[in-house]
Amino acid sequence: MTRVAPSKRPGQDGSMDQAPTPDPFAITSLEALARHYEAPSERALKKVAPKLDDTARAFIAASPFCILTSIGSNGLHATPRGDAPGFVTCLPDGELALPDRRGNNRLDALRDIIEDPRVALLFLVPGVAEALRVGGTARITADPALCARFAERGKIPASVILVSPYEVYMQCAKSIVRSRLWGDVPRPAGVPTAGQMIAAHTGGMVDPAAYDAAAPARNAETLY
Q1: Does residue 1 lie within any of the structural domains?
Q2: Is residue 139 included in any domain, yes or no?
Q3: Fewest CB within a 10 Å sphere: which of 66, 98, 210, 224?
Q4: Cα–Cα–Cα angle for 200, 203, 206, nearest 5°?
């Protein structure tokens, strides 16, 4: 039998690829990471809520787009999900219901959820510089009555992803401000502000109006 030599990929300089040079500046331990960064503020640590509150529900109701992150035996997947604002519904029992609209049927996220229920959601609202992060555990249901609630244009989703949150976190505005993601899109009325969300999630650690009034100058000073 004739053996075929494995293909080799030349480097940019025409030579064959070599093992990467060790990085003398690599950060490889939690201790090294802690030494390299300043400690987070008490407010940053305490603004994580264990469940959805009214401000988080209002933000999700205004969001037409989120990214669903899942993990399984084939690695990590981050899939975009979108529809009219409020397409992800907050159920009375505290769960989030996310309809699985028609796609390419790779089912990456659904396969992951069956293997490992841990998921994360990142909600965005056009014109709003803050984002909402939700960590939780997910399950998949094909309950006909629930699926029918999400019918659009006569089409019923094949299933609904139900997420039980255990971490709800308002992400500050810096990344979206730096990216200029929304351009001149105005902030929609009624979406909770950063000050309102932090006050709610920390039990009143900040005054919402004062926090929001100081936010533009604070963001400009700490943007980089």
Answers
A1: no
A2: yes
A3: 224
A4: 75
| Tens digit of each residue's pLDDT (9 = 90 or more) over 174-222 | 999 999 999 999 999 999 999 999 999 999 999 999 999 999 999 899 9
Q: Is residue 38 part of a domain?
A: no
Cα–Cα distance for residue pair 18/108, rounded to 1 Å: 33
Q: 101: which 2 tokens?
A: 């609209």
Domains in the chain: how many in total? 1
Structure tokens at 2: 């004739």
168 in Cβ contact with 120 (< 8 Å): no
**What would the two tokens of residue 95 be?**
């769960």
Q: How many helices and strands, by DSSP H and E, does the chain display?
A: 8, 8
Confidence of residue 2 (pLDDT cuts 50, 70, 90): very low
Backbone angles phi, psi at 223, to 5 degrees: -65, -30
CA distance 51 to 168: 6
Task: Return the residue matching tokens 């300089």.
Answer: 13
Q: pTM for the whole thing?
A: 0.88
- 12: number of Cβ within 10 Å: 6
Establish if 156 belongs to a structural domain.
yes
153-180 pLDDT, tens digit per residue, is 999 999 999 999 999 999 999 999 999 9
Query: Exposed/middle/buried for 219, CB within 10 Å: 0-12, 13-18, 19+?
Result: middle
| Cβ neighbours of residue 209 closer than 8 Å, sequence gap 6 or more | 195
User: How far apart (Å, rounded) are the C-alpha atoms in residues 112 and 163?
Assistant: 14
Domain containing 72: what range?
Answer: 43-222
Give CA separation, 100 vs 88, 95, 96, 137, in Å: 10, 16, 13, 16
